[in-house]
Amino acid sequence: MSRSSHPTSPPAMPNSAAPPPAPSSGVVSRLDSFLSAHRVWVLAVIVLSSLAVRAVYFRQANAGPLLRMHEWDQSDMSYYDHWARTILDGDPLCELLWPPHHFWHGLIAETWMKQNPELRAEMQREAEQLGPKITAEQVLWRNWLGPKRFYQEPGYPYLIALTYAVCGRSPHWVLLWQMGLGILSALLVWRITNRHFGATAAAVAGMAAATCSPTLCYELLLLRDCLLVFLSLVLVELTDQALARGRLGWWALLGGAVGCGLAVKGIFNLYLVGVLGLLVATYWRQWGPMLLRAGVVLAAMLAVLSPIIVRNMAVGVAPFALAGNAGFAFIQNNAPDYKWIYPNLVNEEYFPEIAGRTGGQLLPAMVATLRAHPSVWSVVWMYCCKFDAAWHWWERPDNVSSYFYELYAPILRWLPVNFTIISPLALVGLGLTLRDFRRHKSLYLVVFVTLVPMLLFNVLGRFRLPMVVAVLPFAAMSVVQAAAWLSERRWWKGGCTVAAAVLLGVWFSRPLPAEVSLARGCDFAATFGFYYQAPVMEAVRGQRWPEAITYLENFVRHEPPVLRDATPADRAQGRDQQTIALLLSDANRHCGGLQLLCGDRAAAESHFQRSLFLRRYATGR
User: Fold this and answer.
1) Looking at the DSSP assignment, which residues form a beta bridge with residue 417?
2) In the structure, what pLDDT confidence band is assigned to residue 35 with cuts at 50, 70 and 90?
């Protein structure tokens, strides 16, 4: 029967859910057949490895401050926790919820109001009417973002609130299900890679996902990034199934998943556009099936988003206003003073003026920010640098530094899979499979969707996580393909593949400038403030010297390598190294004083010597 007699069936075409090409002969072919026949054991190894590394990570993190990072009031983790508690404390529509007001929010608002004294007076009067604890800077930011508008997409905070309501108001429950999502993500990576590139590549990619240090790190942070990783993989899986099967149910599930993604972060707008594009390409000139499936996708997406739409209408906000901070994020990360390598995430030269003039509205902010550049080439160079940064090994910190986490959870440092390894292999794999783009279009789409927002906004370690996992199938494919060619003595292809990976690895492994510190001073200052300071002070007041010494020694024991390996001739490079050295110097000095009170002169002298060394390292005297 001809295809035209079945107008609702997808056209025959090579799609991403089709079986992978038959493996070539040789060792890799035999390994592919063996792993396909023993897939249950492969999955068992992936699951057990995932469980093992997460159990060790949780145990190490629980012995220090890492599971309490939400107590740092300058972090997004703290705001998410506050947001969820606000929902449960009688404000389910978040009508009374204010946007966060971190130190940099105050800095930007203060700078703009200094340039506009009349605005300061107006904001001050409004603040006085709202309450004694409200500042003019907070009122300005609320007006910029829009009263009652969500600061960020609300899906993740509402999930936290649901978890608190069911399990108790402890972020630990959220962190546990995030670790569960990490295990499920590893299984999805295996499944997707197996379908696209075969059993051997799937085993490599699955194990890489199970033991990937960057993704593991953020599973114990009250941030939405590991949820985004999981949602990205679900979208790839559902896209493959919808394209292969063509049934309306799969397209409905895909639309619902896009809605879930949009409720968590707006980057999935790009995925929606991509899905509609795939529909057009798949059902070209079959207008009935095409429009029907597009309608199903959009209807399912709107059904998932309907609670947010109804809430917005109820409080007087635009129905599809999911987040109010996009314009400000664009200004922050695209002005002429933006430098990816710069330690500070917020610069003061352009941000206040552009934010004040545009009110942070996305399109006006984009135009004003890009027009501030001296030339078109300045904009082009900035985006070239961002693309380069997106594949560089450095996990640029935000909220917390993964390198600080490594000090308390060394398993993050022990694991062999990190972006230094993934980046060059993934780029080679993306190049090798480009000729089969149609077969792997869902994977290319998710890489595009996770890469482009970083280029438009900011290249950060945590923003890169969905892309890290999305490229694992390509990285695994490049390893397996190179091994296959070399085992078949196809030296030219195998050698060129290895050489390309090595050259890319050398380029993207280039070191940071000396003044850029992997460990940040704010991480040490914050953890001392919310985790160590109170119990030390309480122990000192009760004259429980050994207890106070235990806390202080725990703090000073976690020196970053740059200080631990420093020689007497070395000096601090940059403000972060100075801050860390001075904090640790003071802690060692206090610890030495407490050791004297306990009568241990040898231990006291050791701490005093270390204190002097660190102070000399920080100040040069």
Assistant:
1) 212
2) very high
